[in-house]
Amino acid sequence: MNLDSRVFVAGHRGMVGSAIIRQLKRKGYRYIITRTSLELDLTNQAAVAVFFAEENIDMVYLAAAKVGGIHANNTYPAEFIYQNLMIEANVIHQAFTHGVQKLLFLGSSCIYPKLAEQPMQESALLSGYLESTNEPYAIAKIAGIKLCESYNRQYGVDYRSVMPTNLYGPGDNYHPENSHVIPALIRRIHEAKEQGLSDVSIWGTGMPKREFLHVDDMAKASVFIMNLDKSIYCNHVEPMQSHINVGTGIDCSILEVAQTIANVIEFEGQIKTDPSKPDGAPRKLMDVDRLRQLGWEAEIKLDIGVRDAYESFCKNIDNLRM
């Protein structure tokens, strides 16, 4: 690690970006560069070019993205594919153009086929059809991986990609319709308790299984992977393949995670399912053997992580994006 490196964290106000900032500061990095979306529109090619020309960046964490749950992906597919394609294309190309040798692109487990063999290995990429509810977002993320691989192949830079499983934790989006599973359930169950309701409904059958990773673990993994010696990293990825899975290697059903959240919140009502709503993929579990072989494993257990997320939710309830 060179603690004097000028590190650009794109998307620093988001859940993942803010966690990466916290981790970089813990590690002692002295020059962390950030811009809000009002200060720098990452979908604007000319603006991104000017930014890189002026800032003399050494290293990039590309955590900026348009994200959301099943409802948001179904409702805004054009925004999801366009904005994510533009962000990654602009940042990755301008990083290369201005001499940035190290970049970490944050993808998503949705890049893998809907019916991929479980647990999903990195080699499953492009081996089958994607889940239809978030296909535009997944295609954009796959394009980001391939951008990194292509620039590595043609120009010899060191651009890596990490594929996190479902993330949660401080700084999450708790919108009642556009958020991911855990924040949506935290808000719904919290409000049910506050209103004295006897039950709360969750989307789908509750049977699909998902893997969840606390965002602070994701940030630690990101900094760990970014700082691995190139020869060590390359020994654990396939030729011409820049991405590596980040997760816990443990999954649970949506109903089970809802019950865990209810226990943390101390909601004593009934958890009901709504089979009229889509389930999404039946199971999404990451194979994290490569990351374990590199020497990193997640530390935060689900119940502890949910408690941390709920405490953050309660502290910031007046300022949350509702």
UniProtKB/TrEMBL annotation:
Keywords linked to the UniProt accession: Isomerase, Multifunctional enzyme, NADP, Oxidoreductase
Active site: 137 (proton donor/acceptor)
Listed pathway(s): Nucleotide-sugar biosynthesis; GDP-L-fucose biosynthesis via de novo pathway; GDP-L-fucose from GDP-alpha-D-mannose: step 2/2
Keyword NADP carried by entry: yes
Entry annotated with the keyword Metal-binding: no
Pfam family membership, one: Epimerase
Enzyme class, broadest EC rank: oxidoreductase
Name recorded for this polypeptide: GDP-L-fucose synthase
Organism annotation: Marinomonas colpomeniae
